[in-house]
Amino acid sequence: MTVLFADLVGFTARAEQLDPEDVRAVLSPFYARLRAELERFGGTVEKFIGDAVMALFGAPAAHEDDPERAVRAALAIRDWVREQEQIQVRVGVNTGEALVALGARPGHGEGMAAGDVVNTAARLQAAAPVNGVLAGERTFRQTRGVIEYRPVPAVAAKGKRDPVPAWEAVAARARLGVDVPHRARTALVGRDRELGVLRDALARVRAERTPQLVTLLGVPGIGKSRLVYELWQVAEAEPELIWWRQGRSLPYGEGVSFWALAEMVKAQAGILETDTPGQAGAKLAEMTGQVLGGAPEAEWVRRHVGALAGRGDSAMLGGGRAEAFAAWRHFVEALAERRPLVLVFEDLHWADDGLLDFVDYLTEWAGGVPLLVVGTARPELLARRPGWGGGKPNAVALSLAALSDADTARLVGLLRGRPVLEAGQQGLLLAQAGGNPLYAEQCVQMLAEQRAGEQLPVPDSVQGIIAARLDLLALADKRLLQDAAVIGKVFWPGAVAALGGAGRGELDEQLHGLERRQFVRRDRASSVAGQAQYGPTRLSRRPPGRRSRPGYSWPGPKWTGSPRRLGRLRLACARRCAYIPTGTRSRSPIRPRPPWPG
Q1: Are 142 and 164 members of one domain?
Q2: Which end of the chain offers a freer environment for a tag, N or C, measured as fewer CB atoms within 10 Å?
Q3: Residue 596 in contact with residue 569, Cβ under 8 Å?
Q4: Cβ atoms of 142 and 464 closer than 8 Å
Q5: How far apart are CA 60 and CA 62, in angstroms?
Q6: Domain shared by 47 and 78, yes or no
Q7: Cα–Cα distances in angstroms (integers) from residue 227 to residues 5, 189, 200, 444, in the given order
Q8: What is the domain-level CATH number for residue 297?
Q9: Would you say 135 and 94 are in contact if contact means Cβ atoms under 8 Å apart?
Q10: Angle in degrees, 0-180, between the axes of helices 437-449 and 460-471, rounded to the nearest 10
Q11: Position 305 in a domain
């Protein structure tokens, strides 16, 4: 969880000279603006205390980029306050573990979050410069790739034994929704076949002048963006100029329905965020004139493309969607007719139905032009659109699996700059990475920064990704995974049904859905007669760390009861599955008698 504290500077002394009505007149717009900025970035206002505010990012639902959201919100607050004449502010942001009470009642004085992370955020806020933002170490580590920081002396915080490391946030390296340029740290590992499919698709659209849709599906960190980068390298190496336009769907914010497509239009027209409406309109008119020439539909297309880029009547994006889709398709076809065109829609799992419908429509209706549409998405997209890309002769979906141990070891060696590591160290890194390139990179970075004698912790970014994916599940699916976590590293539907009380038909549907989203996998063979055997995928397990126990590698709740009671619970589940004799006894939950494999 990430906690943000913001406090007005010197307002307590100033309030002594003001009437209560004047104090309220100053604080009310301050509260309203802070709440708007915090909620715009997905934060939750925990409470207002006098002239201070405390907000949470990661409760009641977690997101993998909660630290980035919090820092961006803090910078937005700082920038707004700098424009005001009457107020100044200090902001502190800190990331760490907290106990969250989702049923807390603020009106009764109950706080939603408790833990050292809250106290440290308050201390950072008190030490921040006027109209400045201080971030703690874990926040800095997770956001230094997207936020520019300035080093500052460690904070001598009240109640802390050691000074608290801190960094001052200066600015975002890129605006929301625009990626910092990708930099490949190593050669591509273990994805030659997938890159071959993308390369062949690009060659096919150029040779046959027919649109193609390729969707890269996989869990966070599995390598979707890296494959897009490699395809861009292929396009850049071609002698013929290929237009490349890329946009990302956003998980939060206002006016993001067709954000990815709008970014492509702005890039084609050369529209900058600093452009005035007049300058943007002139650029848009010039671009559409060059692309469409004197075509009869030029003005019609320009109006709809202008609405998409925010330079026209935004009502066109609501009703009359069929007309807007047709105009946008004409625009894309005109671009592709001039030279080969690649459109990359990233993070389609965040896209709303309107954008998904347009991508589907574009690849279905466009024709006679060299157009390659590439989409990246997590498995959650298939939960919303089970038939995504299906039924089309020009569409293919590639599901990216985890890297093999050999490929992961090679990647770790490249990241470390050493082809051979000590056996125990390499085994720990492979277990933590789980075949996920991002996990491997984060673990290697943690290893490089590890102090002597410390155990390698689970990277915060990895914990955030897993927690965010779990929080997106329906309550019934979460309970199923929690029950499975109690059973062990592998589980059977009968045992889960015994714990949760769900019917077998309903349970099978849930397991199938979780398997499609790559939370669980079904083993080909089962150690229980008449029962399918399941386990967590390599990418959904909690990597081993300080708080993991043998037999409890799932990201579910920890067993807090006695070991003997857990042993009895396991035996009860086993007997429900009818494969352990009634007279069997077990004293240890982590060394059960065969055939219990947990």
Answers
A1: yes
A2: C
A3: no
A4: yes
A5: 7
A6: yes
A7: 39, 11, 13, 21
A8: 3.40.50.300
A9: yes
A10: 140
A11: yes
